[in-house]
Write a structure and sequence with these properties.
Layout lengths: L7 E2 L17 E5 L2 E2 L4 H15 L3 E6 L1 E2 L7 E5 L7 H19 L3 E4 L8 E4 L4 H8 L7 H12 L1 H14 L4 E4 L2 H10 L8 E3 L14 H10 L7 E6 L8 H8 L6 E6 L5 H9 L6 E5 L4 H7 L2 E4 L8 H8 L4 E4 L13 E2 L5 H20 L6 E2 L7 H14 L1
Parallel strand pairs: 2-4, 2-7, 3-5, 4-6, 7-8, 8-9, 9-10, 11-12, 11-14, 12-13, 14-15, 15-16
Antiparallel strand pairs: 1-17
Helix pairs in contact: 2-5, 7-10, 8-12
């Protein structure tokens, strides 16, 4: 839920210290199928491994596949990824990682995914039943949504995932949610848990990469994307077009003046959205960029950022956009909407009229930002736990206990 009393835009940058003076002398295991820097939970896992190693911990990252080189002090141990069914792969990973966890005799084992045993469970998504409930609303009511729901319920991988989740949430381990929204989804799925038992630690963007740009930096980034001076650039970042509300956003674009253009970073296979844009006569105003490696430059080019997601635990993209000084719109079913004022949050991400209305309301602020020497920053609330420092405090508390 949005908490506007804690969050406001101002001329100061979104800043907070992530320096810890207390060294961590412990053997720590992190567990997640992929060791990568692509994907929200993967990026968190990579940063956490580096952060803990920098503070003196001996870090092993137990995974199925390593996709990037590990930083100093991090040892990646891969169990491999055999050519099996989705359920069999999940079962293989969970069992092999459990064997490695027991053999490693770690002081603290931190799970970022589906594992059989752990000391700390960091939930960066939601219980599967809750995710299904929200995400299925991205489909129109009727046979298509019903069939999607049925396939999920009959899926062997889905059933195994729920079995592992049930074990995790009944295990008595320390649970950390990455937003109030996720905490509430956990409590809805597992009412035997108590709210005070679940720690909330928000993500925090890498502020060395994401910060308000100067005017000349924005102009250069806009030129790279071919944005004409009179165009108003609205941005979306997603690898899941359906879930993140791409359709309703294109419909909203059709209700806006012709100088509004939509730039979409990430994803592939957008033919159905090309067809939608053509039907609505906005094809020339919708730009699919594919995978964008330089996301800070993408945010510099934009005037407004949007994420009308049907489900997002705590979108990093929204936090990165805020850190980059952008007026931002999101949906109530996104955990990072906590940081937005209520008027920038749409209750129904499928309501294209509400999206268009909100974009029009954000336009004066966007145009004012263009004329500044530097965009205004964002005040990070000081009364919430966030980032690597917040998560490290949970680890230190566990180790001390």
């Amino acid at each position: 839920m949005t908490n506007s009393s804690k969050v406001n835009a101002s001329n100061s940058h979104l800043t907070t210290s992530e320096n810890s003076s207390v060294p961590i002398t412990a053997r720590i295991a992190l567990m997640l199928p992929r060791y990568s820097r692509y994907g929200g939970v993967e990026q968190f896992g990579y940063r956490l491994s580096a952060w803990l190693a920098e503070r003196g911990a001996a870090v092993d990252f137990l995974c199925a596949r390593q996709e990037v080189e590990a930083p100093s002090g991090v040892r990646v141990l891969s169990v491999g990824r055999p050519r099996l069914s989705k359920r069999a792969k999940m079962d293989f990973f969970a069992r092999k990682v459990e064997e490695m966890r027991l053999a490693g005799d770690y002081d603290c084992a931190i799970s970022l995914g589906k594992t059989l045993n752990q000391d700390i469970l960091r939930v960066g998504g939601a219980p599967l039943r809750e995710f299904w409930r929200y995400s299925e609303t991205a489909l129109p009511a009727g046979p298509l949504r019903w069939l999607k729901s049925l396939r999920r319920k009959l899926s062997p991988a889905g059933r195994l995932s729920q079995e592992i989740e049930d074990q995790q949430y009944h295990s008595g381990c320390k649970i950390v949610a990455n937003s109030h929204f996720v905490r509430d989804r956990i409590l809805n799925a597992y009412p035997q848990l108590k709210a005070e038992e679940i720690e909330i630690i928000y993500n925090r963007p890498d502020l060395t990469r994401y910060h308000p740009p100067k005017r000349e930096e924005s102009l250069a980034a806009r030129a790279d994307l071919g944005i004409a001076p009179g165009q108003l650039a609205v941005g979306l970042a997603t690898s899941n077009y359906l879930l993140k509300g791409t359709g309703p956003l294109i419909q909203a674009l059709a209700q806006l003046p012709e100088n509004y253009h939509l730039f979409i970073a990430g994803g592939r296979g957008h033919s159905q959205y090309d067809s939608l844009a053509k039907r609505l006569r906005v094809a020339g105003r919708v730009h699919f960029l594919g995978k964008v490696d330089d996301m800070p430059r993408f945010y510099r080019a934009l005037d407004i950022f949007t994420l009308p997601s049907f489900y997002d635990a705590c979108s990093n993209a929204v936090l990165e956009a805020l850190a980059s000084g952008l007026p931002t719109l999101s949906s109530a079913s996104n955990g990072s909407s906590f940081f937005l004022p209520p008027e920038n949050v749409v209750s129904n991400p499928g309501d294209s009229a509400a999206l268009a209305e909100t974009l029009l309301r954000l336009t004066p602020q966007a145009l004012e930002n263009r004329e500044r020497d530097e965009r205004p920053g964002f005040n990070w609330p000081t009364d919430i736990k966030a980032g690597m420092e917040g998560f490290t405090a949970v680890v230190e508390e566990f180790l001390a206990r």
